[in-house]
């Protein structure tokens, strides 16, 4: 079996969830995930944020703010629309999103464009929190996960959503029941999300027992109180429970200087992280500073495997 930075686009199109998990294990802490917001205009015209993340070395790309009711990705779906022509062009964008919602190959096309493994955030927000329906973790949206062909889901919470341990556990159980055994479920919190951080490693074990394949924790140095020793204790519990561990940069430090990213990356690797995530808030354009995606990759696997990953964007 290949390591993650060796897989090509044809491998990705045919890989099962269980095979992907073993590929990540085999890669020994050298897997890079980039999160991108798909509803923001992109920093480079004509290039979507997922494409940009792929070009700078990400293996896995997580779509944030993806609306299951009106799917739309800037940099792909807006290229034939000229807003200067008037409000009719805005209606054209809405029509495109409606058309996308009925396209079972929508995410498959994105995978073909990027040559990457594609996942999506689904958020288990409490019932009393007002939030966009198309982004919530519920039965209807989970059924769309399979319809569109996502490779994995990430159950977590954006800022001020009130996502808690309880809503995450309930979300994992619902997702596993509806999506079956082969769907990869990543779950956890990279910041408080309006209801506090998770510091008790034993709570992470509950996520594994509920059915999660990979547990998400804040990377060392990204939230108060999470240093190398705390992160290692949390990851040891996750590994002992049989799951993968993901360390996340989700506090806008993805827009910091390169040295910060390199430091976080090395500490995360020392802590035992299997997947290193970098967030979507560089210049508030829905993606990390692209050079920082590459810096993270180089820090944990060197230029050889980073450049290989960058060059394998569309290689069959």
Automatic annotation (TrEMBL):
<dbReference type="InterPro" id="IPR057238">
    <property type="entry name" value="DUF7916"/>
</dbReference>
<feature type="domain" description="DUF7916">
    <location>
        <begin position="6"/>
        <end position="315"/>
    </location>
</feature>
<protein>
    <recommendedName>
        <fullName>DUF7916 domain-containing protein</fullName>
    </recommendedName>
</protein>
<dbReference type="InterPro" id="IPR011060">
    <property type="entry name" value="RibuloseP-bd_barrel"/>
</dbReference>
<dbReference type="Pfam" id="PF25509">
    <property type="entry name" value="DUF7916"/>
</dbReference>
């Amino acid at each position: 079996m290949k390591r993650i930075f060796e897989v090509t686009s044809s491998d990705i199109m045919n890989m099962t969830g269980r095979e992907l998990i073993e590929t990540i294990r085999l890669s020994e802490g050298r897997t890079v995930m980039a999160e991108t917001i798909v509803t923001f205009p992109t920093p480079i015209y004509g290039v979507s944020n997922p494409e940009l993340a792929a070009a700078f070395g990400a293996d896995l790309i997580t779509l944030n703010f993806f609306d299951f009711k009106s799917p739309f990705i800037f940099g792909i779906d807006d290229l034939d629309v000229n807003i200067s022509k008037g409000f009719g062009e805005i209606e054209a964008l809405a029509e495109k999103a409606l058309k996308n919602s009925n396209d079972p190959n929508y995410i498959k096309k994105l995978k073909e464009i990027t040559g990457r493994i594609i996942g999506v955030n689904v958020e288990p927000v409490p019932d009393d929190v007002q939030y966009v329906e198309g982004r919530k973790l519920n039965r209807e949206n989970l059924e769309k996960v399979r319809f569109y062909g996502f490779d994995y889901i990430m159950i977590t919470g954006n800022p001020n959503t009130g996502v808690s341990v309880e809503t995450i556990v309930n979300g994992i159980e619902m997702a596993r029941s509806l999506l079956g055994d082969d769907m990869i479920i990543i779950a956890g919190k990279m910041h408080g999300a309006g209801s506090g951080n998770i510091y008790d490693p034993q709570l992470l074990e509950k996520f594994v027992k509920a059915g999660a394949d990979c547990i998400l924790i804040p990377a060392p140095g990204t939230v108060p109180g999470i240093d190398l020793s705390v992160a290692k204790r949390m990851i040891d519990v996750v590994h002992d429970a049989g799951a993968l561990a993901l360390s996340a940069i989700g506090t806008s430090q993805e827009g910091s200087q390169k040295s910060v990213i390199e430091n976080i990356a090395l500490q995360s690797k020392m802590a035992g992280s299997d997947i290193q995530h970098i967030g979507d808030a560089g210049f508030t354009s829905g993606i990390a500073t692209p050079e920082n995606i590459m810096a993270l990759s180089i820090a944990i696997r060197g230029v050889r495997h980073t450049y290989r990953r960058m060059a394998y964007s569309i290689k069959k």
